[in-house]
Specification:
The protein has 281 residues and is an alpha/beta fold. It has helices spanning 34-42, 51-65, 77-89, 92-95, 115-121, 134-147, 159-162, 194-201, 219-225, 227-233, 267-270, and strands at 103-107, 126-131, 152-156, 168-169, 175-176, 183-189, 205-215, 235-243, 246-253. Helices cover 33% and strands 20% of the residues. Helix 6 links the parallel strand 2 (126-131) and strand 3. 40% of the residues are buried.
Amino acid sequence: MHANEPEPRTTASPASARAPLSKAADLTPPVPTPDFLESATSLGIEFEPGELDRLGTFLALLLDANTRTNLTAIKDPADAWTRHVLDALTLLPMLADLPEGARVIDIGSGGGLPAIPLAIVSPHLRFTLLEATGKKCDFLRHAIAELGLPNADVLQSRAETAGQDRGTRQPDGSRTGAIREVFDAATARAVGPLAVVAELTIPLVKVGGLVVLVKGQRADEELAAAKQALHMLGATHAGTIDTPTGRVVVLEKLRTTPRTYPRRDGEPKRTPLGVPKTPTP
């Protein structure tokens, strides 16, 4: 973090109300599976010394914490290597051109996916994990500390609130500590339909920034439904990439997002932008 930047604003959760989380030293990390290693090689991923160990430690922390807090439906370590770690790392090519120190925000981080695996293998990028639920934020902070990731921090907030945070106005008219339109890229996985997640992510990135979304086989259908929403938010569809674990939709922000967006908490999900309302019978 640069000296002229404010500390990330986080909301602490009462420790007494949370079940204790295990230390990494007390857990046995799962070993990468041959399928995972083969798929990573096919994607052109070359791991630096220690990165596979840290990825395994992250999975151990995640699966252990999942016995206390609902973080993932995947409980088998072999499946987790592919469906969690590999799935996260499929975003690497889309983030490859970001410069040293670029800022990436992950919306609805939950159990730390895709942000924590990406932070492990991309130490030159700075990740903010945005999550609204206190117990999940506790896990994220714990995992970041146990893994020793200086390039990751946690912000406890709803995306709608963060997207309207323009920081504090200074006497000279400038603003500091803003969350809105300061990130070079945003990522999201399993947050909702594309029209919804677009409204939650696009306001957070700079003009020229990217939004990288992990989607499934309905990506084309969701894109068609989100066409008007993207126009309203100032973004365009830059491409869809097929990966070994699904499909990744890339959006590019072309102009400043109108101040109206994102709307109030819960409204993007209740009434997605540009999607015709179903008439009441």
